[in-house]
């Protein structure tokens, strides 16, 4: 078998953990498998690099930022190769250049285009464990790029796809995907399986276990993922196309507090108003999530939408700058709001999920400010202070506990 194993920063944070990971990989290797290991930078090293850079220049050039970032992952793979070597196993570390991990040009947010597999195959054929830097690539200018924070997951999936690996295991500091954040919902339960689509919704909604793009890529290339803990031997969660499980209506509850609601009140009710507003926001590169339009008084309408907290100021700014074009009566911004969602492929063929969600919030006396739905998700916007209560209520209502 060819196995790709990815370990995050906490899993390689110090010497003990490095050896722990080394032994885990060697076990597979000794069973006769080909083993590729993708590593992130040790502990919070990438954050430290950000601090160092900002200390020198508050707005560092993106190219140089990527140049700096790449040393973090390079340090991990080199030390891991040394650890394996000390344990009597031959291993070799490769960075994005040596592999030739080709990406698009955009620094800080590059996408993988193509991976040369020759060098990796050659090293595997020599019976070496191959250690590869996560998160980084090279572009057509022969410059280093990075895939965006948390991007090592995507490196691992891309390698698994390119080399047709039999397994892609993502090791992290949690032991799998839960029905809700166990720190918030005490009754949360680990899922044995979940679909790509559910995982994507949960990831976007702040579950934060896997890099979003890694899940997108896994879905696209049919790479089955296993998410498990690097610290325990517990079985993890399998992420795949069609999770069979006892098809529950809902698989998980997620919350995102990094949300603000902006209401543009008293817009003229004529064609093109919504276009004007969202065109302005799009051109300013502001991601809009939920949208609600409602009828106002005297041929006016109100449009509310949500953005992440950090882009709220920018959104207000561009709206203010385009006051003439939009001509609203006034604009409001509410930051103490949160999105709470229930996600489940099982709701596709079952009506009544939204009603049940609203009912449980009503029973907990929680007011809903906005609603949005997809085939497999119901999201409500509520007061931030009600987040934990809402998550627990939904978790109970949909019977997600053991
Ligand atoms: N070291 C990078 C980061 O902290 C990439 C990763 O961990 O996946 O974002
Ligand atoms: Mg991560």
In short:
With 402 residues, this protein is an alpha/beta fold. It contains 13 helices and 18 strands.
Give an account of the 3D structure.
The chain has 402 residues and is α/β, with parallel strands linked by helices. It is built from 13 helices and 18 strands. Strand 17 and strand 18 form a beta hairpin. The two termini are 34 Å apart. The strands form 4 sheets. The chain has an 8-stranded mixed sheet, with helices on both faces. The mean pLDDT is 94. The structure holds aspartic acid and magnesium ion (MG).
Entry keywords:
eight-stranded mixed β-sheet, six-stranded antiparallel β-sheet, 18 strands, 37% helix, 27% strand, binds aspartic acid, binds magnesium ion
Strand arrangement, major sheet: 3-6-2-1-9-11-12-10
Give the distance, in angstroms, between the N- and C-terminal Cα atoms: 34 Å
Are any ligands bound, and if so which? aspartic acid, magnesium ion
The helix content is 25-40%
- Overall pLDDT level: 94
- Please state the oligomeric state of the protein chains shown: single chain
Please give the number of β-strands. Answer: 18
Q: Could you tell me the strand content as a percent range? A: 25-35%
Rg, please?
A: 23 Å
